[in-house]
Amino acid sequence: MLLDAGLPQSLWAHAYKHSVYIHNCTSQAALDGKTPYEARFGVPPDLRHLRPWGTKVWVRQEKFRKLDPKARAGRFVGFSDNHRDAIHVYWPDQRNITVVRNYIWSVDGEPDVVDAIDAILSEGARDDGVELDAPVQERDENDARDDAELHEQNEEQGDHVENEGALEAEGGEQDAGGAQDKSMEDGEGVGGEDRENADPDAGDGEVIEQAPPDPTPTSRGQRVKKPSAYVRNLQSGEGTIDGRNNSNCKYPRGMVPSEIMGALAALESPTEKDGGPDSGEWDNPTVAKDWGLAAHVMVARAAGDPLSGDPASLQEAQAAPDWAEWEKAIEVEMENLRAHGTYDLVEKPVGANVIGSTLVFHRKRDAQAIVTQRKVRVVAQGFAQILGIDFNETFAPVAKSSSLRLMITLAARFGWPMVQLDVKSAYLNGELDEVIYMRQPPGTAAPGQEHLVCRLKKSLYGLKQAGRAWYRTYRAAMMALGMVQSEADHACFWQREGESLAMVGTIVDDMLVTGTPDLVGRFRTGIKSQFTVTDAGEVAWLLGIEVVRDLHAGTVRIAQRTAIDAIVRALHLEGVKSASTPIAVGGQLDRTQCPTTTDVIADMAGVPYREGVGMCMYLSVTSRPDISYTVHRLAKYMANPGHTHWEALKRLVRYLMGSRELWLVYGRDSSGLAGYMDADWGTSDDAWHSICGYAYTFDGGAISWSAKQQAVVALSSTEAEYIGITHAAKEAIWLRALLTDLVHPDFATHAVRLYSDNKGAMDLARNNAFHVRTKHIAIRYHFIREAVERGDVDLGYRRTEDMPADIFTKPVTQARLEHLRILMGLLAL
């Protein structure tokens, strides 16, 4: 296609995307002569809009002088996914790509220029005022300053460096129908026949990305960027295919409350500073406004790579190259439903609410993203359930992240086994209280029984009450095994006998089990008598978290490197330069940077800001406390993010790239449990509220942390710290209650040590007398005084330089960030 069109090789991604589009509109023998488009949407594709890739098009110009041409010639390189009746046009003279709607095809050679212009202007008269901006070359704001320097570097290297912009393919997973549904349905040419239904918000002439120059030596002053290693591999062809029974018992061995509660955390920094990521800035490539999947995802889909996205329907699974494996997985799931007695086939009752069902396909992967299993679930369409008829209560608890980290820390300290168990088809064990009717799963009805519906007897994935029904069954089974439910975390269970104990943290159907070997072994045997359980042995991968144990050093460390890689791919930031800190010191983020014009709002609507913040948020609450403050700031603008917020998010992801090898390490020392809190007065954006945060470490590793904006405006830094201490004290009391449940009741008699760097706030917390400086503070914030008086919390002073919680309240420099990370147990290994 590239050779036939005479276009540069740098447009390979667009050519490949168009070939996928054509492939999906072509009959396939594997589909009994149907096209993939017809198999997906049920109707044959309309091919009247197709043109050869690289076809010349004439595009009307709005701004021109009397003697200037009224139309420009460009080259067609693909259909737009987001704009109806729009195509992507490559401009050889400017080497960029724009989205246009007002154009005419060049047919049978070159048309008469005057005729072409007249035709375009005639079409423009019917265009309902939609204007075309002249295609412009977007440049980084530092281009003018850097052009000469970059050119000199290129001459010294002697290599041609291509612009990275167009190598990040803007297209999506081109289902043939993707653009066809949105772009052209009836009409000879997308440019002129169907304008009445065009989206008035779709901007024409919009620069969506930079196409690289031809592979010829660059000239002085030209802005060039080096493609990422991943893109260079693709260009070279590499990698493209393919109960409290005895409160008087002894403490568990070594678990003496006085040795754990209130101990000092280690503050010594390593003699040699860990090398941090590069502190340089990154000139980001042009952000594509027509967002889709990255080029490598598109390549994988086109090549039929089983590692591409999971099938979204039965039809897609049947068209996949690994359909035989999916067919086996469907039969396994149906046999599973029959074995559990999940439903009976009955005639549809008159007037009954019958909900739908679907099949969900998923490829389970390990830490290296290698497919380990193909699973199919029959999922009820619970969105059709009616409250009060089909369901009532829906809540079901899961273990808190802090609970799981505490269990990991205890296992590291005492050398306990850490076992991961998984209940197979857990939801199918739940008993239903309501009568629910459901249509049979797609493609599973026996001949002559297509009219029957399923009367559910057991819980099923997708039902609103499914999680609650399973939890009730699971809790009853745990009680039958002699386990006791924790009052601090209802998804955690424990059992003690003398010096032996076992504790279980539950996340739906996954269990993290630790404790002394005797009771852990007994529990493993007992739970297998209650359910069908997969015993994975020593935990290595839990909820997307890598868990690595060093028995010799007595440590356990956790990280989420695979999740970081996924975020980088989702935001198309492969190969960019890393950042040294998650947020710039002095960087301002506020609501004045939110877009107010329709054009900018529409522009930002295609940017995956919410998805990126959401993915980073999961990291911040599981294994990366160092990004909590930044995520807190970015999350405030998810409803209407601006370009400044988007750049800040990309900086955060670049920081994660550079700190990918940071591990949260437990068991480095025996410092026990200690808390640290800090507050930054009046620095929260927009409302002048203060930011407060805390971190609790156990044996040198953070097990609980928080960054939060205070609900009221504090009148001084002391007041902000005082309110922050109350916030941290609540977590201290909860952690003590959890230790009391899981380990021994005597922990309830020991105070938790909580450090602050504000002596004034500590004096207010210790002094329970009325004070003119505190009379206006809401009663709820005086909770800390009672906690100190009761002996629940023991306040201590820690200088600001060694205050780990400082990282949750403000941006910090790279050197300070590295120091505070070490204090929380985040180490580069």
TrEMBL record:
It holds the Pfam family RVT_2. Residues 233-247 have a biased composition (Polar residues). It comes from the Eukaryota. InterPro entries: DNA/RNA_pol_sf (IPR043502), RVT_2 (IPR013103), SH3_retrovirus (IPR057670). Residues 169-247 are annotated as: Disordered. Residues 57-104 form the Retroviral polymerase SH3-like domain. Residues 342-583 form the Reverse transcriptase Ty1/copia-type domain. PANTHER family: GAG-POL-RELATED RETROTRANSPOSON, INTEGRASE CATALYTIC DOMAIN-CONTAINING PROTEIN. This is Uncharacterized protein. It comes from Ganoderma sinense ZZ0214-1.
